[in-house]
Design a protein that fits this description.
single chain; alpha+beta; PH-domain like; 8-stranded antiparallel beta sheet; 6-stranded antiparallel beta sheet; 16 helices
Length: 566
């Protein structure tokens, strides 16, 4: 275990780095920039520019004063067993974290932090998403504190961490998409962005992935990028009225554009929007994922570092990782891209942490298998749920068609539209519904590996969850009225990791019981009634099905639709 840094060697109370007296007021001013601008350019037009300027000045001075309060009122100390943080002026808060329960220590540095040599430290104990923040310490001091806290946790809980060592199958990342043997430790495959083999860095790090700038081609296909572009356009539109523009020139330009062919106008606007979308989404990708590295550390943790303006170093203890989630939005799926998340207990946002941005699907699969320490879960063929499930997907996808068609018919009656308008609207939505139903069923399935339960679903957003079978703490079988009529059910595996449940939708009820018993042999036996051929699942009533002896898995029933590659 590394020696404790200076701040951890004594019971004395410490304050944050004095340079925060510069950071906090500036950050407060930035957060108040929008109201100050509104006061200057908006309110100033009605009450006079002098009054608006005075109000903006008062707001700026208040921001400087109140920005100093956090530094004055925050203090922290380390005891032999705890980290204690006191903060607050009027309402005092006392936060404590047992040092032997520390599960994550994340480092974050904004651009201003980096200019001043500061780093924000976030300490998590894994109980929930709450983290204790020390904003901020010196850069070297923060790095030493991170090593000390994680090293101390490793010594205390090395038995738990040892359960997920790095020597299991899948510890070496393949150098090709097919998972072939590595060609040389530490080398880098330019086609995938994944190191060839187990790159041992500095003797105690194994690099799993690093940013490859060929991945920029996936940036415009991410739904998050589309949302950011829309937000930028929305914010920009709020300031158009305050820009001094020659309206006569704009009107003349618009008259010229309107005089051209409609197809030219529409094509030009589409081209402008497309270029703006590509440029802004690419810029956002670079800012967020600059210098990305995914590293497995010797102490049994995964560390993800990234960021251009604000650098983030997120640590996830591997002993708390219970699976992964691979997400493929529709646009991203069209170019064979995906995103990868870990499912863990008490870390990340809602138990999930993104470790790979939009990137080649093969890279996500390789890194995911390395994290899982087992190959195949992200690439295996999944079992389909049969014709009744397929019919349900098509029927569900047409509900929107029924609603829209009813609205179109109502509008046509009151607005005297021709009959073909609602007919055309209904036909269009019906075709879209058919495609969605087809995609829903094509992407719906489940499977089992020696260590993991695999479930997949979604049409516009396809998600494959891989959950460790040892991490399943219970089962819930749900049936709606329409599912009961078709003999279908939704099987929910409950867990302490990630979103705390993994759903497998619309599979035959007997198949759901067999799957649950195969994934966790013996867990359902406590519900057995009479002979082993009768089993009761809470919430589903009496279910006919064979429950095999503990330790034996049930052979899958004949699948009328066979198998499909997802």
């Amino acid at each position: 275990m590394p020696p404790p840094p200076e701040v951890a060697r004594t019971d004395a109370w410490h304050q944050l780095n004095p340079k925060m007296l510069l950071v906090t007021p500036v950050r407060t001013l930035i957060s108040l920039a929008a109201p100050i601008l509104v006061a200057l350019f908006g309110i100033g037009r009605g009450v006079g520019s002098d009054w608006a300027a005075r109000g903006a000045l008062i707001a700026a001075v208040a921001a400087l004063i109140f920005g100093m309060i956090p530094w004055v009122t925050t203090k922290y100390r380390f005891t032999d067993t705890q980290l204690q943080v006191h903060r607050g002026l009027i309402s005092r808060n006392v936060l404590t974290a047992p040092l032997d329960r520390v599960r994550s220590v994340d480092l974050e540095s904004s651009l201003l932090h980096r200019l001043l040599g500061l780093t924000k430290v976030k300490v998590g104990t894994g109980v929930d998403d709450t983290q204790i923040e020390l904003d901020a310490l010196g850069k070297e001091e923060a790095a030493q504190l991170r090593r000390y806290l994680l090293g101390r946790s490793e010594v205390v809980g090395q038995g738990t961490a040892g359960a997920r060592g790095t020597g299991a199958a899948g510890a070496g990342v393949a150098g090709t998409a097919a998972g072939e043997a590595a060609g040389g430790a530490g080398s880098h495959d330019p086609t995938t962005g994944v190191p060839d083999g187990a790159a041992d860095l500095d003797g105690d790090e194994q690099e799993l992935a690093r940013i490859d700038w060929s991945w920029l081609r996936f940036a415009p296909f991410s739904l998050s990028s589309l949302a950011i572009v829309a937000a930028i356009f929305g914010v920009g539109s709020q300031f158009i009225d305050d820009i001094d523009v020659d309206l006569s020139a704009v009107e003349g330009a618009w008259e010229w554009v309107a005089a051209q062919a409609l197809i030219v106008v529409v094509g030009s606007l589409t081209l402008v929007l497309l270029i703006a979308w590509i440029a802004l989404s690419t810029l956002n990708y670079v800012v967020q994922w600059w210098n990305l590295r995914v590293v497995r550390e010797r102490r049994g943790t995964l560390r993800v570092t990234r960021g251009l303006l604000t650098t983030n170093a997120t640590t996830v203890e591997e002993a708390r990782i219970r699976g992964v989630r691979m997400t493929e939005a529709l646009l991203l799926r069209m170019v064979r891209g995906a995103e990868l998340f870990t499912l863990a207990t008490g870390v990340g946002s809602g138990g999930t942490s993104k470790i790979l941005p939009p990137s080649p699907r093969a890279v996500d699969q390789q890194v995911g298998h390395t994290v899982l320490e087992e190959d195949g879960a992200l690439t295996k063929r999944l079992r389909r749920h049969g014709p009744r499930s397929r019919m349900r997907q098509f029927v569900q996808a047409q509900w929107n068609t029924v609603i829209v068609l009813a609205l179109a018919i109502t509008a046509a009656v009151f607005l005297s539209w021709p009959w073909w308008v609602p007919a055309l609207v209904g036909l269009g939505f019906a075709l879209i519904g058919l495609w969605i139903g087809f995609e829903e069923y094509r992407n719906l399935g489940h499977g089992l590996t020696p260590r993991y339960l695999v479930g997949q679903q979604g049409s516009l957003l396809r998600q494959r969850h891989v959950l460790e079978r040892d991490g399943i703490i219970g089962w819930n079988v749900r049936q709606s009225f329409f599912q009961r009529r078709r003999g279908l059910a939704t099987l929910v595996a409950t867990t302490a990791a990630g979103p705390e449940s993994v759903e497998i939708r619309d599979l035959p009820l007997t198949m759901a019981v067999d799957l649950a018993d195969s994934a966790t042999p013996g867990l359902l036996r406590q519900f057995a009634v009479g002979a082993p051929s009768q089993s009761v699942v809470s919430g589903a009533g009496v279910v006919a099905g064979s429950v095999p002896p503990a330790g034996e898995s049930t052979p899958p029933a004949a699948d009328p639709d066979g198998w499909s590659e997802r």
